[in-house]
Amino acid sequence: MAGLTTHVLDTVHGRPAAGVEIELFEWLPDGSANRIAHTRTNADGRTDTPLIAPAQARAGRFELLFHIGDYFREKSLPLADPAFLDVVPIRFAIADPAAHYHVPLVATPWSYSTYRGS
Fold first, then answer.
1. How far apart are CA 118 and CA 102, in angstroms?
2. Burial of 80 (0-12, 13-18, 19+ CB in 10 A)
3. Which domain holds residue 7?
4. Helical residues (DSSP H) of 31-75, grouped into ranges
5. Which of 17, 69, 81, 88 could be a cystine partner for 10, CB 3.0 to 4.6 Å?
């Protein structure tokens, strides 16, 4: 399966992060960015549909914006104002549009990591 998917894991609470706002931008050759998806994670911390469907998969440079600060504020965690992490950007490239790209976010209010998953 080609295309782009993601999910968000809350490692403070040890569960998927439901309700996280996610934006996907495509970076164009002229240096501008075009928002191509805007969604929220479901109860499983995933999006209900791929961010890029297999039929629309293409090579290029992309950026995911995870609005993780809002998520942790809603959990009533004691956060600084402003929060250390608010919107987490992950910029990556799709080289092979026939391949599946899964770019998850594993987060706390103070740290995050990502990887290319399956």
1. 6
2. exposed
3. 3-114
4. 68-74
5. 17
Query: If you ran DSSP here, which 8-state letter would residue 6 be given?
Result: -
Q: What angle do CA 52, 56, 61 make, to 5 degrees?
A: 65
- Token pair 């998927």 is at which residue? 16
CATH of the domain at 99: 2.60.40.180
Its pTM stands at 0.96
Name the token pair of 92. 């990556």
Length in residues, the chain: 118
Site of tokens 């549909």:
49
Q: What is the pLDDT of residues 69-112, one digit of tens each?
A: 999 999 988 899 999 999 999 999 999 999 999 999 999 999 99
What domain count does the chain have?
A: 1
